[in-house]
UniProtKB/TrEMBL annotation:
<dbReference type="InterPro" id="IPR014036">
    <property type="entry name" value="DeoR-like_C"/>
</dbReference>
<protein>
    <submittedName>
        <fullName>DeoR family transcriptional regulator</fullName>
    </submittedName>
</protein>
<keyword id="KW-0805">Transcription regulation</keyword>
<dbReference type="Pfam" id="PF08220">
    <property type="entry name" value="HTH_DeoR"/>
</dbReference>
<dbReference type="Pfam" id="PF00455">
    <property type="entry name" value="DeoRC"/>
</dbReference>
<dbReference type="GO" id="GO:0003700">
    <property type="term" value="F:DNA-binding transcription factor activity"/>
</dbReference>
<dbReference type="InterPro" id="IPR001034">
    <property type="entry name" value="DeoR_HTH"/>
</dbReference>
<feature type="domain" description="HTH deoR-type">
    <location>
        <begin position="12"/>
        <end position="67"/>
    </location>
</feature>
<dbReference type="GO" id="GO:0003677">
    <property type="term" value="F:DNA binding"/>
</dbReference>
<dbReference type="InterPro" id="IPR018356">
    <property type="entry name" value="Tscrpt_reg_HTH_DeoR_CS"/>
</dbReference>
<keyword id="KW-0238">DNA-binding</keyword>
<dbReference type="InterPro" id="IPR037171">
    <property type="entry name" value="NagB/RpiA_transferase-like"/>
</dbReference>
<dbReference type="InterPro" id="IPR036390">
    <property type="entry name" value="WH_DNA-bd_sf"/>
</dbReference>
<keyword id="KW-0804">Transcription</keyword>
<dbReference type="InterPro" id="IPR036388">
    <property type="entry name" value="WH-like_DNA-bd_sf"/>
</dbReference>
<dbReference type="InterPro" id="IPR050313">
    <property type="entry name" value="Carb_Metab_HTH_regulators"/>
</dbReference>
Amino acid sequence: MTSARRTDTPNQRQRHDAITELVLHAGSVRIEEIAERFGVSTMTVHRDLDSLASQGILRKSRGTVTAVASSLIEASIEYRARQQRAEKSALAHAALRLIEPGQSVILDDSTTGLALAELLPQHRPLTVITNSQRVLNTLADRDGVALISTGGQHYQWCDAYMGAVTTEVLANLRADVFFMSTPAITDGICFHQHHETVLVKRAMFAAAKRRVLYADHTKFEHRALHAMTPLSDFDTVIVDAATHRDHIAAIRDGGIDLVIAEK
């Protein structure tokens, strides 16, 4: 006996994203309110919420749905991969221009890093060091790209490896450049919701000669729990063109090399 895996339709994915945005903004929403807002039955909403809950994005409880992706927990990679696609592409193309053939490059488990990974074969030969299983999958069959996996404990929500094994491997490596993303920037400091991720990114930072941060404008609007690294510690910061002029001015006033990525 075989069973077919259920695949969401484009309309369902759009509704899932819209529901997620609504709940992330409000923090908690009644299920009946979601049904009224989107003009669907409560049964349909329950199916949508079950799907989102299985991805670790939202949580159902007594007629309401709450956001899992808060200051404590980051949204799943499936959801993040669908957000700000144009901005991530622009950031990745800007980052690519900072890479030279023959270099060793560290990529974190961010979805912007995945966008950059898809472009890296243009500058081969390269050595790529990463804790991201999706980056490994993207580059596994590319000639001229040598891959080093950090290994470690695998976390399904981000499809990446973290923990003591990961940081120990990174401590014994030295790379030319590290490209890092962050879910939140507050008061000129990068923050992340997961302490384990902070430790890995710090180890990557220490293993690289040059450190580059890429962040779209939405990161300046978010908050997270754990401080990682001040913007002033990066050699270059790449932002997208929609970043507010006040944030751009603050970065420049700090004497940081700033690149504005155009779509």
